[in-house]
Hints:
Elements: H1 7-25, H2 37-44, H3 48-61, E1 64-67, E2 71-74, H4 77-92, H5 96-118, H6 121-139, H7 143-160, H8 164-189, H9 192-210, H10 214-254
Antiparallel strand pairs: 1-2
Helix pairs in contact: 1-3, 2-3, 4-8, 5-7, 5-8, 5-9, 5-10, 6-7, 6-9, 7-8, 9-10
Amino acid sequence: MNPKRPVAHRLTDSVASELEKRILEGSLKPGDRLPSERALALGLGVSRPSLREAMQQLVSKGLLSTLHGGGTFVTDRLEAHFADPWQDMLKDNPLLHRDLLEVRQMLESQAAALAADRATDVDISRLDAVHAALEASYELDDLNHCIETDVAFHQAVAEASHNVLIGHLTASLMRVVHGHVANNLVHLHARPQRWSQLRAQHRAIWQAIREHKPQEAALAASEHIEFVRRSIEDKALDEARRSSALRRLGEAAAK
């Protein structure tokens, strides 16, 4: 018969599991600095030696990293290992953008439906705040802030789905498409009617979730990604026409 593990060891495992759960659910996000050892031990109700051992377990897993004299941080291991190679491949393979949008459409429509079904009052308050920030960026005509709040809005919807994998997959996809989102928003910003449509789409997703209407939320999210797909195709067509016009101008000048 195997001897029982020491109580201290079981406590360490329990603390490590609690911290890992917070990382998985997104309470602790990549780049977040953990509270001081004293404050964290007090909050978890454990001794500092037990906390240190638990944190070391997560360092060994690659979920935490420590800087000498600089604290302990959540790593981006759950996202970066997926995102990094895809970012490079998207640059060299334009057709992957279509595939990526198909995945986003499936993932975000499901996330919106689940969020509408599962969102708590805390989730709704957070969505309200993120959507208000997005609306403010539209009102101020602040394109850079709009890009950041657009990404934050979609991530908040994913996390409100209460599906850990959806939350992390969405975060990974947002890392991959961040520059792509920025370019598309610049394109739409120059077209007031489409810019207004984009704003209305985000509002529709937000309203359907806060009113707990899963089917409407899924449809709103799906239509939003379809709109993004069409706008990207329009942007590519505009660029092709511009290049063609410039070539004709160059050839005429050379005659």
